[in-house]
Amino acid sequence: MACDNCQQNWFWKKIGTCQRCMDQLTVLSVVCWVIWFFFFKQDPRSIESIALIVAGFAFNTLLFLHLWMKYVILPWRKRQGKSD
Description:
- This protein is an all-alpha fold and 84 residues long.
- The protein has a domain at 47-83.
- The chain is 71% helix and 0% strand.
- The protein is built from three helices and no strands.
- The protein is elongated, with a radius of gyration of 16 Å.
């Protein structure tokens, strides 16, 4: 990524701070599930279908972690006076 937050080395300092990452994960997640729904839902045991399901869950999980950090953890830390 090209933003300053994404150039940092530590994963937990990056997550929840980059709007570009969250936008990209949202688009990737939606596109992945739409493709799966329209093209691979009929045969869920094919390798393509399984790959899209795994990718969709990975995108959703990473997006959830970003949103959890942005709206729960970082505001909580700010209220506690912790700046890390």
